[in-house]
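Exercise 3.2. Students should predict the tertiary structure of the chain below and write it as structure tokens, then compare their answer with the key that follows.

Predict this chain's 3D structure.
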Amino acid sequence: MGETIEPFASLHGAVAAWCRNTLGEATAPQREGIPPILEGRHVLICSPTGTGKTLTAFLPIFSDLAERRDRDELFARTTALYVSPLRALGYDVEHNVRRPLREMALLERPDSERDRVRRGRIRSRFVRTGVRTGDTPIAERRLMLSRPPHILMTTPESLAIVLAMESYRATLRDVRYVVLDEVHALAGNKRGAYLSLLLESLEEIVRAPVQRIGLSATVAPLESVAEYLVGAERDCTIVDTRALRDISIEIRAPFTGAMAPLATIARAAHSAIERAGTTLVFTNVRSQTERIAYELRALDGDGSDGDGRDGGGVEAIEGDAAPRESDARIGVHHSALERSVRHRTEARLRAGELRAVVCSASLELGVVIGAIEQVLLVGGAR
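Answer key:
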């Protein structure tokens, strides 16, 4: 493709080469967002989904980690925190971060050279990533103490637990970056206010001020959200590359009266799914998710015993079992399901193996889920 395209030319050589070979031309948020991040400024990026804003935040972090490795200063400490409102989003972003790191030859593999003590400090040759949420097994949490990930994905609640434990606080003293994704879901509510206090607590323990990077596709007013992101008396650069997209919205009432049975709603949803490609069906509560998925599978003729009933129900799924025939087209996703079940659904959705997924709010924020042709909202959004 010729010479490295700006702004990628300012990145570490390995990162710039990957951008040139894989991305080619920078997107709008990348052109406007990477330079101020490299300059060390706090940045709020507002750009539509699919324009590469998450990668915009991480490319300078990759570059910094690569430069530290070249100087043999990649210490066994967490350098970047990624905070998201949803566990599913954190796992999804880790999956998407590991691929470029692997292709840049920066990611630690099972056969990679382990950390070694050199010149009195533990130093790494490769970058580790990790996820710390309520789902994380105890064994993995303990491993993070002895071998902290350089990039840690977490949620506000798990960050609060980490900051309250002295053993974990020691691994965060070298944090340089905090990436706050889907900032619109946190700004202006109690959960977001709590996160602001946590970030100020983090500032008290780090060796140098933390650089904050906020990401959102649907946030306004930008100035107020930028102030929320960085706190009082700090400047924030706003990267506004919002654009309008053509969408089609249709409201259907497949019933008469004040309320409809979920079976009636499921029949209408099934009809819409049959006419479209991959579909997300959002519900407001977990019980609706389970019931509508059950009805959709029954309408598909999956998992029934002849009279439209499934003895096990949609929740009776073994975490390590192979996908059942009744799961072939309709997936289920909500926060009460076992972690491996949710991860399997997310992976199959990304791979295009599912015709539809019935979900609660657990899939609503920024998860990269492949090509979605249709979204159904049962009962309207909360």
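Discussion points: Residues 63 and 302 are 49 Å apart (CA to CA). The radius of gyration is 22 Å.
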